[in-house]
Amino acid sequence: MNDDRAYPKRRPPLGTVWASALLIMGGGLFLIPLVFTFLASLARSSAIDPRLVAPLFATAAAGVAQLVAARASWRGESWPRGFLLGLVTAEVVALIFGYTFAILGLIFAGTAAGLLWRSDARRYSAAAFDAPRHR
Known about the structure:
mainly alpha; 79% helix; elongated
């Protein structure tokens, strides 16, 4: 039996598509500092400053989490909505502590959170959760 005909794939609404794209851009943005710091330390043959290790890995973890949330929101899972609200809160705290780099992440994650809380995105998530899964 052809599963493609039996269970037609639902396309996500436009807000969910844009939210996923914004999360991918935000995730990539948060991975840039780790990659370039690592490449610069390789080019200079020196170790990364120990004071930068924790902020670099925290920023990279936020980037990876945004990439995972982008995939999950595309698939219609509901947990990215709450996760993004927590991420926006963490980015506001980072701004208060002077990490101005977080302003771009706040723009991406805040806009994505708003798009995922719209009614069409919530309906898509509810319908995707109730649909049969074939892996």
